[in-house]
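User: Can you write out an input/output pair for a complex, sequences first and structure second?

Assistant: Here is one pair. Inputs:
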Amino acid sequence: MSSLKAHLSEEDRHRIADGTMDEERRAVIDAHLASCWNCKSDVAHLTKAVPSLRHVSEPTAPLDDLWTEIHERIEQGKIVSLGKEPPEATPAAAPQKKKFSWLWLAPIGVAAGVVIALFALPGKRGAEDRQASSMVADTGATLVSVVDSSYAYEREAQVLLDKLELQRALLRPEAAQALDRDLHVVDVAIAELKDAVARDPANPALRQLLAASYRQKVDLLKRASNAS
Amino acid sequence: MNARARGSTEATATNGNAASVDDLVRRAQHGEVAAFESLYRTHAQAIYALCWRMTGDEAEARELLQDVFVRAWERLTTFRGQSSLATWLHRLGTNVVLERMRVGKREALRMIDAESAEPETPGTDRDADTRMDLDRALKSLPGGARTVFVLHDIEGYSHDEIAAMTGIAPGTARAQLWRARRALVRLLDL
C-alpha cells in the first residue's frame, strides 16, 4: 500500500463524499487523513454536505392548462396534412358544393400519379422533385402538402430501411421473413390509403389512418433495427 | 434516492395500481388520447421538475414539458415496460432537454467545457438571513455545471452515461460535478 505525500485530489474528496471510493484506495486515503487535518476537515465537510444536495424539493406549477396544447399537437400529428381543406359550403352556395368537389377529382388523379411516380423512382428524386413541384403547383396547395407529408415519412422509412439492410445479416432468418411479411402488409395498406385519400382528400379519418400506417411502418423498422 | 430510483420505487409502491397503469399505457399505445392524458396528469410534475432544473427557466421548462409529452405519445409504442414508465419518461425528458440545448446552442452545453465557468454570485442578496434554497442555487450555476449536477446527483446517471448523452468527456463531467457541488455548498452555506 503506497502512502500519499500530497493532499487529496478533488476527485478523492468527492468520491469519499458520495461513497464511490473503492476499498483499496480508501485505505490509502484513510492513512493520509489520519495525519492531515486540512484534508480531513474538508472531506468531513463535503461528506456532510453532498448528500443534502440531493434532497431537492419538487417544484410545483399548474400544468393542467398545458394539456390542451399537447392534445392539439397530438391531434395534428395524427393527420397527414393535405393543405387547405375544400371551403365549407355556405347555405347560399350549397348548390355549388357538388360541382366544386367534382372539380377536385381531375387534379387529384394527376397528383396521385405524381406521388406514385415519385416513390417508384427514388434514384431520380431530384429531377422528379422539380417535375412534381411544377405539376403539383397546378393542382393546388392541398396536393403539394400530400407530397410533402408523404415524403417526410418515406424519407425516414428509407433511412431506416437502408440501416436495416446492413444489419439484416444479424437477424434470424425467421425474424427477417416475419419482418418482410409485416412490411408488405403495411405497404399494401399505405398504397390503398393513398388511393383513398386521393379520392377523398377532405376525409380526416382517411388521413389519420394513412398517418398511422406510416408511423406503424417507421416503428416497425425502428424496432427491427434495434433488435438486430 | 435519485429521481430515476424514485420512479422505480413509485412503480413498486403503487403495485395495486400497476395493473391500471399498465392498462393506461396499453390503451394509450393503441391511440386512446384520454388514457394518455391520465398518464400526463400523473407524471407531468416530475418531468416539469426535471426540465426546470436542467434549464433553470420556468417558461422554457413548460415548453419542454409539452415537447416531452408529444414525443412520448409518438414513441409510446416503443415502450416495452422493461423499466417503469416514470424512468422511461425521465430518460426521454432528459434527451429532449439536451437536444434542445444542442440545437439552440444554449449556454448550458457551451459552458460544459468552460473551465473558467463560475457560478453567479448572489451579490447583495446574500446575507446571513437569506439562505438560498437548492433550486434557486441551482439556477445560479453555469449551465454546464447545472446540467451535469442534475443528471448525476439528482437523476442518478453515471458519468459515462452523461458523457454519452451530452458528448463531453467523462473526466469533464466529473470536473463539472465537483465544481457544481462546491458552488452549491458555498451558496447554500452548508
